[in-house]
Amino acid sequence: MPTSSSLIEQLATLGIQLPAWPEEPEGVGATGDWIQRGQAYAEGVRLWRAQLRNAAESTKGLVDQLLRHLHDTGQVGVWDQLVYGAIKPEVQGSPDYERWQACTKLIRSSALTPAQLLGIAMELAREQRLAASTYGLKRLLKEHPRIQAEERLQLCSELVAAANTSCLMADAKAGSADWDRAVQLHQQMTNLLARAIAAELPDDSSMGTQPTEGTPLLSRLDAMNNCLGSKGAHGHAVFIEICREKLPALLESWSGERPWIVEVGCSREIIEGQNSTVQLLALAKELDLPFAGIDLDQANTEALERDYRELNATWITGKGEEVLQTWGQPIAAIYLDAYDFWHGSHSELRQHAYIKSYGSEINDTECHTMHFEAARHCARLIPPGGLLGLDDTWLEKDQWAGKGALALPWLLDQGWQLLSCANRSTILTSQSAAAKKR
């Protein structure tokens, strides 16, 4: 089954000749020389970037117009979107954040072949987007049971080589990166390779078997992601810390149905320090509580269900304020981080998603209303001692701003106690039955 995309063919009709992609055999598994095909995909991204970067401005304009037309008419595949997202800043001069918002979201797609997933993981590692690249490697190890120990070693070697840990250490020495974190990442990558080498030895019982969540190789990847998650952590880090401090007392006296940990607005992009969903899942597992993730993006909830099906988690596609209106289970802690507030760093991909779901681009009026309605509906479900977090909410000239601009004054008026407003995130606790007034 050739994967030379319709994009390549249509560009050719315009006189723009770009390298074709590898041909994929029939079937969906990791078959044949798929690692070599993955290397070819990664090299192809670099060739496309170099060729289009040096093209005439008129050619660049034609490429952009064609991509926009194919996207708007639903004719562009995930791989073509990934490639163009990866190279667009160099080719078209678009903001760099658009690249990472697109690539770290689309790497979750089930439409990617194993070779394509490896190719984009290598490209992201080369660009030092290590959280997304390690996620890609973990997907490969979990989803394809026929990967042998020798192939697992090769995959880990490709990732570490592409990531180029010497760059991490050089940045740390120059003061442009955290030294302790760089050393820890270097150690984690060394440990990953050591584990992969050990797995290839003839007496290793895991040789030729599918890794499971508890195997040492996947545990090494989890350790790397935990380290990466500490980079510039957002408000969810404080929320989780307070949950660990406060919730044991609530649970100790709890009887009946176990209360839930809920996140409204799940992580859609795998970016260092921003992947709150994974960390909230880990918190729920640690406290032995069920977890629910609510998100408007069906592709996102489907990817999360695929990636974490072994955990006690429920994934719901819908608007958070509407889902919570009919939610009936008790909630121990909820983190509201859904409709974005307006700022200048939203990609076209993100804006298109809002237009599709809400009929308009991101705006503060919708943002404030959505989080107010969500807070109002969930407040009745949180017992005294339970927690509510509102991300991207802060005081500005003695007025609450951001996502919780309407929700915060209402919650405080209902008797909720403010515990923290660090990292532009507010965390409150329910004090009494008065907090459940609607």
Quick summary of this structure?
The chain is of the alpha/beta class and 438 residues long. Helix content is 54%, strand content 10%.
Give me the number of helical elements.
18
Strand portion, in percent? 5-15%
Q: Count the beta strands.
A: 9
Gross morphology? globular
The helix-and-strand class reads alpha/beta
Q: What fraction, in percent, of the residue positions are helical?
A: 40-55%
- How many discrete structural domains? 2
State the end-to-end distance: 58 Å
Tell me, rounded to a whole number, the average pLDDT: 84
Unreliable spans are: 203-208, 434-438
Radius of gyration: 23 Å
SSE series:
HHHHHHHHHHHHEHEHEHEHHEEEHEE
**Biggest sheet features:** 7 strands, mixed
Walk across the major sheet and give the strand order. Answer: 3-2-1-4-5-9-8
